[in-house]
Amino acid sequence: MTMEHGDKATPDKAVHRSPGDYLAIIEPLMDAAHADDETAFFTLLDDLTAMREKSLFQDVGHLTRQLHEALTNFQLDSRVADLASEEFPDARQRLDQVIALTEQSAHKTMDAVEEMMPQADALITRATVLDESWNRFLRRDQSADDFRAMVGEVSEFIEETGAHAAAIKTGLSDVLISQNFQDLSGQEIRKVIHLVHEVEETLINMIRMTGRAGVPMDRKAAVAAPLPSDGEHRVTSQDEADELLSSLGF
Length: 250
What we know:
Blueprint: H1 19-34, H2 38-75, H3 78-138, H4 144-178, H5 181-210, H6 219-224, H7 238-247
């Protein structure tokens, strides 16, 4: 009893043989060897080898094809190309614009504060002088000339207070206006955050596609891994990879 040489397993399912299946070939193989039937012997020997290797060969071939197609699809994904060629540069420009707007607002705010500080100091100084004169008046420790001088100082202080208050109000308005950049910068930052989420999803899909999710990388082992020697065969193009897989029947 022999197995026909042309008998093949289905390509999509691994074939699991029992010891009896191997015995069905080994016994005729021994008979052919004793009979010195070279043709039958080598035919049966090929069948025996094919039975052992067919399942593993098919599994490796299918895994290779799936990995090859997955990597090819990822490399040719137009969305990935758009992210690299358009979205990333656009995101950098948006962040640069946010930085420029932030710096511009900061400078305007500091300039406005620097202009308001001397005016506030002047009001504090005049208020301190008037406070001393007013306390002397309450203690009735002023002459008529001192009282008339205090009245003049109060009049000047009221006038200066109006001018300084108007200038401070203008400065505060400038500070408020300079903060309007936050609306625009917030929109730009949200767009960049959306891009980051999209990149994250793309990377997660790539990890799932390659079946490496949850497997930690041994960085030391990766660094220490030997590089292929110059004599080793390399597949240098997409066409060669497809041709190699096709030649193997996958």
